[in-house]
Write a structure and sequence with these properties.
alpha/beta, 2 domains, 36% helix, Rossmann fold, six-stranded antiparallel beta sheet, ten-stranded mixed beta sheet
Length: 362
């Protein structure tokens, strides 16, 4: 089983990259399994990835390189034993240090081959991320073996060159690749590079002597180093929504939440995401935030048709830098409390299930 770990900060393009890679692997007749990790009780991206039609597990309510090691080991063992995949893709939360995850996998009694650790960089927001959480970003970059300089379509040539130079100084051993995850040509190049380098098999029994060594010099808690606060929630709503009106509603909430959060920290970076299923469509709206570019993206993903009967589940996940968790939670709840009644929706928030770390099989 070959293991692909694809890291990078929130909003760097991991999920888009993973979906494109899965299509490439499926075309090559590879059996693929996927583990998605989101920091928060309520998962968002797992539902979007479900449509890929591969065995998937979503681990929530923590970071798999910190608080969810047991869940990680159980999940990998289950996927390996039951589905026997050729390739296991791991999309850790943007608040993780991927090499810590690889270290944990090396201790398991499962034969694995490791592709180089990939860290994606959002070139359009990299400077803002460095300003907000320099130690965290530097550590992610130091342990990367392939750095995907992503979203090059959103930045000028000189900015890209400047960041490439900085990254080379930070980690001279890493292979750099310019890419835009939305373009198939970029994914083809990344896939070929990963498969070509994924040749050495490590016996976990001799993990201490393995050629792969973590570049994390101490057992750091990645979430603490990042200075990122997170919150998530699930709202049960009643009323009438169409795909169009639901998309507009989520965009209004996410946009307004970003404006309010900026009052606490005008320079925040991070991610605010919401999702709801309406009939045959999963609607997912996200704000990938930088101080000068708070971009709203909406995805409409086909799903198996469900009869909503006027009842909906709205999920949200927010993770931003240097804003107190209490302010973040209050902001998200307030925005939902304002916009849902405006659409004639009644609602209630599902009680927190904090402490539950059981993986969810999609």
């Amino acid at each position: 089983m070959k293991v692909f770990i694809i890291g990078g900060f929130l909003g760097s393009g991991k999920t888009t990259t993973v979906l494109k890679l899965i299509k490439k692997m499926a075309a090559d007749k590879k059996r693929v399994a996927l583990i998605v990790n989101e920091v928060g009780e309520i998962g968002i991206d797992g539902s979007a990835l479900e449509v890929a039609g591969i065995p998937s597990k979503e681990i929530t309510d923590g970071c798999i390189c910190c608080s969810l090691i047991y869940s990680l080991r159980v999940t990998v063992s289950e996927l390996s034993d039951i589905y026997k995949p050729d390739i296991l893709i791991m999309e850790p939360t943007g608040l993780s240090f991927p090499s810590q995850i690889r270290d944990e996998l090396l201790r398991m009694n499962v034969m694995m081959a490791f592709a180089p650790i990939i860290t994606l960089v959002d070139v359009s927001r990299f400077t803002a991320e460095m300003n907000q959480m320099p130690e965290f970003v530097k550590q992610q970059l130091r342990e990367a073996e392939i750095i995907g300089i992503n979203k090059t379509d959103l930045a000028g040539v000189e900015k890209i060159k400047s960041i490439e130079t900085f990254l080379k100084e930070m980690n001279p051993d890493a292979y750099q690749i310019r890419m835009s995850a939305k373009e198939d040509e970029s994914i083809d190049q990344l896939y070929q590079l990963m498969m070509a380098e994924s040749e050495t098999i490590f016996n976990p029994i001799d993990a201490g002597d393995a050629a792969i060594k973590s570049k994390v010099t101490e057992k750091m808690n990645s979430i603490e180093v990042s200075n990122v606060s997170t919150c998530s929630g699930l709202y049960h709503a009643k009323g009438e929504l169409t795909v169009k009106s639901a998309g507009a509603l989520l965009e209004e909430i996410v946009t307004a939440a970003g404006i309010e959060i900026a009052k606490a920290n005008p320079s925040f970076v991070g991610h605010i995401k919401m999702a709801v299923k309406v009939e045959e469509t999963l609607i997912k709206v996200s704000q990938t935030a930088g101080p000068d570019d708070r971009q709203i993206e909406a995805e409409y993903i086909p799903q198996e048709r469900i009869e909503n009967n006027g009842k909906y589940e709205l999920r949200f996940l927010a993770a931003v830098t240097n804003v107190k968790k209490a302010i973040l939670e209050e902001t998200m709840d307030n925005m939902i409390g304002v916009f849902l009644p405006a659409k004639n929706l009644t609602f209630e928030k599902q009680a927190s299930k904090s402490g539950s770390k059981k993986p969810i099989l999609l």
